[in-house]
Amino acid sequence: MTQTSTTSSWWFLLPCVVGALGLFAARQAGDGSVGFYAFTVFTACVYAAGWWFWGSRDAFSGPSVAPQILRGVLLGAALAVVFVAGALVVARIPFLAGPVAQLLDTPDQGGLAPTLAVLVINGIGEELIYRDAVPRQLRGRFTELGVGVVSTLIYCAVTVAMGVPLLVFAAGVLGAVCFYEASRSGRLYSPIAVHLTWSTTMLLVMPLFLSG
């Protein structure tokens, strides 16, 4: 579960760098455009490849899958409630609300189905890299707390490429919760459930609070 990296190489960060470039390109292509979806899927593929090289298949092994998923769904829903409540404040701050509202308009530009699809695909990809592959390679270099802090900071740094300040904050909170779940269970069922529950709720519910 806590496989330690036996090399001093930092090549495992390459998918993070390429992922940041992919997210930046997606935003530059225009939310809801063909380029947006293509670059987002590309980013998810990069993450999946990175996990294949530096992650562990043990992340999806073991019994009691359903309880882990249920726990993740409940945590993700609770996190979503907190963020939706925060939206009531954010809606009054144009500097913060503007970029978020623009990103959440993506379904109106490109359709709800493709937007949900890339949201799920990329969300799973992020968990593969930032809650399994990267932490596994950091173990042996830092304490478990240090691994959580460093991997979450890397996640936040990559999220900067999206150009949405609040997403960086959200990445910090979501990353910390998901890392805890991954570290606690040694698997990715709960972190993925947290991530997807939170992100889909944000996409579907948050616009109701930021739509003017």
Automatic annotation (TrEMBL):
<feature type="domain" description="CAAX prenyl protease 2/Lysostaphin resistance protein A-like">
    <location>
        <begin position="112"/>
        <end position="200"/>
    </location>
</feature>
<dbReference type="GO" id="GO:0004175">
    <property type="term" value="F:endopeptidase activity"/>
</dbReference>
<feature type="transmembrane region" description="Helical">
    <location>
        <begin position="74"/>
        <end position="95"/>
    </location>
</feature>
<keyword id="KW-1133">Transmembrane helix</keyword>
<dbReference type="GO" id="GO:0080120">
    <property type="term" value="P:CAAX-box protein maturation"/>
</dbReference>
<dbReference type="Pfam" id="PF02517">
    <property type="entry name" value="Rce1-like"/>
</dbReference>
<protein>
    <recommendedName>
        <fullName>CAAX prenyl protease 2/Lysostaphin resistance protein A-like domain-containing protein</fullName>
    </recommendedName>
</protein>
<keyword id="KW-0472">Membrane</keyword>
<feature type="transmembrane region" description="Helical">
    <location>
        <begin position="192"/>
        <end position="210"/>
    </location>
</feature>
<keyword id="KW-0812">Transmembrane</keyword>
<dbReference type="InterPro" id="IPR003675">
    <property type="entry name" value="Rce1/LyrA-like_dom"/>
</dbReference>
<feature type="transmembrane region" description="Helical">
    <location>
        <begin position="152"/>
        <end position="180"/>
    </location>
</feature>
<feature type="transmembrane region" description="Helical">
    <location>
        <begin position="35"/>
        <end position="54"/>
    </location>
</feature>
